[in-house]
Design brief:
By secondary structure, this protein is of the alpha/beta class. The protein folds into three domains: about 200 residues, 3-Layer(aba) Sandwich (Rossmann fold), CATH 3.40.50; about 90 residues, 3-Layer(aba) Sandwich (Rossmann fold); about 100 residues, CBS-domain (Roll). Helix content is about 35%, strand content about 15%. The chain is built from 14 helices and 13 strands. It has a seven-stranded mixed sheet. A four-stranded parallel sheet has the order 6-5-4-7, with helices on both faces. Strand 12 and strand 13 form a beta hairpin. Helix 6 packs across helix 7 and helix 9 packs across helix 10. The protein is globular.
């Protein structure tokens, strides 16, 4: 299967019969038939803010330098740093707007319970707003959501439920029926989602770029960001091309042939793509789509951090990887300005793509990348290191027993079944069960087993133990 960055054909799908126009959310109508009014854009002020909510938005735009130069890209690429919002992502904008609009319409009041299914960033944003405004916040996230996101939401006072990806929306609906005075504002269908970007993000872009934007590259999850920005730019800068970026495994891109080859493929990048078409996604404003794989996304995100000093997340790497490929493919010249949206922060992924061992374990980096010829142990066979034989456990070992072993300085604990290694338990996977999933010590440890091992486990363990020896 060829899963390299793939650029779809432009324009041809804009005449296709899609459901985007039938959704209503992008025409300013919500599910109850009421109209959401637009808000007048106000320039940023450096006055003292009443609350942190007044600091949402007005994020800076920064020119990329080293990466375009090293890739021999001639056009200008500038990045909108949405990860500098107070909650760490562009979802702060829609969280504030959805809650404020619901209050204005009399749907909710402080003391009520807000429920939201989310991959994490909207949950953080809504928990932040709820903490300031006085709402109980209940959030349901899929299992691949990073521990950092979950910890942040709980720190903001939210109750977080971790469920399989295919059920987190249905679980939210179930909780809504069970909890009195609860409301699901629904980022996937709420018109306040794209309107937040139409009224603010797009206006900021136009002001900061002084009206010159030739191309804009935006990831799509709920579709609110690209739809809101795209619609405003089509109105004010008609010649601007709006490019949607979609991960392999998602079905949002058009033409649909882009999605068919890898429709069932799972992907690791969070906060982008989906397996259904949200009502908040208006594909009519998108000129072209690009598909990007996990590896290119994460490697580019790491480059943005290391080479440009931009502390962004994996979906930001996905968007920049798409822009770089597009600029090279179409030989965009010096007079062309491309804008990329950096959606969220490095903070959410310290134990994921930022970590070398996580990248190696998932096949995004080779073991050779850790080689250091100047290291005193370089070239020394593991037999000469004098390492102690590693402890191991079985799938039925309890969490309490695993915790006791790991408290003795063990970072990775192999799991044996029928004399074969079936995986291992790490501090992070153990923590996810005891803290996030709220499992007690008498529960079996098998849910904490990491089974997606793509390298020789003994080598991985030896390298992990070297820092302990030194």
């Amino acid at each position: 299967m060829n899963d390299e960055i793939k650029i779809g054909e432009p324009v041809i799908f804009q005449s296709l019969d899609t459901n985007d126009e039938k959704n209503g959310a992008l025409n300013g109508e919500n599910s109850r038939g009421k109209s959401n009014s637009h808000k007048e854009y106000c320039p940023f002020s450096f006055d003292i803010k009443d609350t942190i909510l007044d600091a949402i938005g007005y994020t800076p735009i920064v020119r990329l330098n080293k990466i375009p130069q090293s890739e021999d890209v001639k056009c200008e690429i500038v990045a909108k740093c949405e990860y500098l919002n107070p909650g760490g992502s562009l979802k702060d904008r829609i969280s504030l707007r959805m809650i404020a609009d619901a209050e204005k319409e009399g749907k909710i009041k402080p003391g009520d319970t807000l429920i939201e299914p989310t991959s994490g960033n909207t949950g953080i944003g809504m928990a932040l707003v709820a903490a300031i405004k006085g709402y109980r916040m209940v959030i349901v996230v899929p299992e691949k959501t990073s521990n950092e996101k979950i910890a942040t939401m709980r720190s903001l006072g939210a109750e977080v439920f971790v469920k399989p990806a295919e059920s987190h929306i249905s679980v939210s609906n179930k909780l809504h029926k069970q909890i009195p005075n609860s409301h699901i504002l629904g980022q996937y269908s709420n018109p306040s989602n794209p309107m937040a970007h139409y009224d603010t993000t797009a206006e900021e872009l136009i002001e900061q770029c002084e009206g010159k934007i030739n191309y804009i590259f935006v990831g799509a999850g709920t579709g609110g960001t690209i739809s809101g920005i795209g619609r405003k730019l089509k109105e004010k800068i008609p010649n601007c091309k709006v490019i949607g970026v979609d991960p392999y495994g998602s079905i949002l891109a058009l033409p649909e042939e882009l999605n068919k080859a890898v429709k069932s493929m799972a992907y690791q990048v969070e906060g982008t793509g989906d397996d259904f078409i949200p009502k908040t996604l208006d594909r009519k404003v998108i000129d072209q789509w690009i598909k990007v794989n996990d590896k290119d996304s994460f490697l580019m995100a790491r480059r943005l951090i290391k080479e440009e000093g931009l502390l962004c997340g994996g979906s930001s790497g996905q968007v920049v990887a798409a822009a770089i490929r597009y600029a090279k493919e179409f030989n965009l010249g010096k007079d062309v300005r491309c804008v990329v949206i950096l959606a969220d922060s490095i903070r959410n992924y310290m134990t994921k793509f930022v970590d070398d061992f996580w990248m190696i374990r998932h096949g995004f980096m080779s073991m050779d990348s850790l080689s250091d010829p100047s290291h005193p142990l370089f070239g020394v066979s593991w037999e000469k290191l004098g390492l102690k034989e590693s402890e191991f456990v079985g799938p039925e070992t309890t969490l309490a027993e695993v915790a006791k072993l790991m408290s003795q300085g063990v970072r990775y604990l192999p799991v044996m079944e029928q004399k074969k290694i079936v995986g291992y338990i790490s501090n992070h996977s153990l923590m996810k069960q005891t803290i996030n999933a709220k499992k007690t010590g008498d529960h079996p440890a098998w849910p904490a087993i990491i089974r997606d091992i793509q390298i020789v486990i003994t080598i991985f363990l030896m390298i992990s133990l070297i820092p302990l020896i030194l």
